[in-house]
Write the structure tokens for this entry.
Amino acid sequence: MEKEIVVSGIRPTGNLHLGNYYGAVRSFLSMQEEYNCYFFIADWHSLTTRPKPEDIQKSVRTILVEYLACGIDPEKATIYVQSDVKEVLELYLFLNMNAYLGELERTTTFKEKARKQPDNVNAGLLTYPTLMAADILMHRAVKVPVGKDQEQNMEMARKFARRFNSMYGVDFFPEPESFSMSSKALKVPGLDGTGKMGKSDGNCIYIKDTPEEIKKKVMKAVTDSGPVAPNSEKPEVIQNLFTMLEIVSAKDTYDYFNEKWNDCSIRYGDLKKQLAADIAAAMAPIRERIEFYSKDVDLLDRIAKTGAEKARESAAATLREVRGILGFRK
Ligand code: TYM
């Protein structure tokens, strides 16, 4: 039986952080054996925020190194750079013809970005969900490992797939589902009291951080003056620390601190020290492999080249059929 197809991507806008790792990358890793996986670096998507031209190749390489260091295996999965697969632009154009201004304007990510960069509300930002849908539908993927913040974009991708099928009376694109290793999509919190960990929020712990850097960041996490009554509900900043423990640490560790919270004997300093040590331990092998891969530029180039060839083959096959469905020459 043919393996089902999985696609996922990350914008090259800096180093991978724990949100990327636990929210998405770790889910990719669990799928490499069973699925036909395409993991790419979304360099075109990063243009919506106008990166400096001199930074683009460096940023792409950083993600490539870190993807590999996390354990994505180029022998099993296809790793490629989005801009190496020009076919995606043709599908983006076709999908844009059936994407409506109102629905694009209503997406939360668009509204947020428009608020953050009011003097650069460009059409690329508006059509970000169609480009993302093209990335996914390009390979006719059924599963997409992503964090919780991508749910609305995923909803749009499903809508565009459904609309295409019904407009042309075909059953061509599957409706792609979000996938998470945990039972529901993850939102990795920031430890500074703001909702999620994110590059633009400046609250990231990076997978490349040293144990000392990790400890420094975790010890600075915002807390309160402690529980006031046994078994009380945790305020958001404390819940964030517990969510991190739940994601990174062993269940026993979580239960231990949870009990301490419930009987009001918790010492946040102890919790933070444990959390920092657990994050550092989880990231140690990854950090070593980052060193290894960063040194081998030839290997990185070969992996990206082979990945692009495989991705283009899959993309070209989809495009031929899409052109036929739309009435264009194949
Ligand atoms: P990006 O680059 O913002 O983030 C990459 C992945 O990391 C996840 N993530 C998080 N998950 C949980 N908690 C967090 N704090 C956190 N921060 C980031 C994101 O959910 C994402 O899965 N639009 C995408 C890139 C993309 C894409 C695609 C993804 C383009 N085309 C096709 C999947 C399929 C983005 O900006 O991710």
The longest strand covers residues 5-10. The chain has 13 helices and five strands. Strands lie at 5-10, 36-41, 78-81, 143-145, 177-179. The mean pLDDT is 95.
